[in-house]
Amino acid sequence: MTGLSAVIPTARLELRPLRIEHAAEMAGVLSDPGLHTFIGGAPLDATALRARYERLVAGSPDPEVAWCNWVLHAVAEQCLVGTVQATLSGPTAARTAEVAWVVGAPWQGRGYATEAARGLVGWLTARSVAEVVAHVHPRHQASAAVARAAGLTPTGERQDGEIRWRADVA
């Protein structure tokens, strides 16, 4: 699959491929403990986030899996505001993309997550992904709204307590 490190432009954002150097700025963007209400864990400091980004940028150890990660650059504000990711797996003809998004607390409520998720799903669709999947905590209404706006629908399936959302895009 080619172009996995492409910049994905949207109306107000550039989804820029994750780089290790983003860790310092992203540590501030992701510093609000409230971002972990539904996903667990705690914010990482710049050093820990850098180590995480080093692992992500190195890529999946499984040759059948591709990790695709972007930071969200708000063009007008000239700053990073969040991330999106897609984990691609499966045979090329039936490739699945498991997606996720997060927008820093100061930038929430502006539609950035929806815009980024729509941009990501559109980009994946253009690359012959057959199915897009997201897992959303049942009480996380904002994330459910993003999934719905990106064209995903909830299924009756749950994984680790989260609702599986999906869209056939082939």
Task: Give me a quick take on this structure.
This protein has four helices and eight strands, in the order ββααβββαβαββ. It has helices at residues 23-29, 46-58, 112-125, 141-149, and strands at residues 8-9, 13-17, 65-74, 79-89, 96-103, 131-136, 153-159, 162-168.
Describe the structure.
The chain is an alpha+beta fold and 170 residues long. It has a single domain, classed as Gcn5-related N-acetyltransferase (GNAT) (Aminopeptidase), CATH 3.40.630.30. The chain contains 4 helices and 8 strands. The chain has an 8-stranded mixed β-sheet, sandwiched between helices. Strand 1 and strand 2 (13-17) form a beta hairpin. Helix 3 packs parallel to helix 4. The longest helix has 14 residues, at 112-125. The protein is globular. 31% of the residues are buried. The model has no long low-confidence stretch (mean pLDDT 95).
Which helices and strands, and how do they pair?
Elements: E1 8-9, E2 13-17, H1 23-29, H2 46-58, E3 65-74, E4 79-89, E5 96-103, H3 112-125, E6 131-136, H4 141-149, E7 153-159, E8 162-168
Parallel strand pairs: 5-6
Antiparallel strand pairs: 1-2, 2-3, 3-4, 4-5, 6-8, 7-8
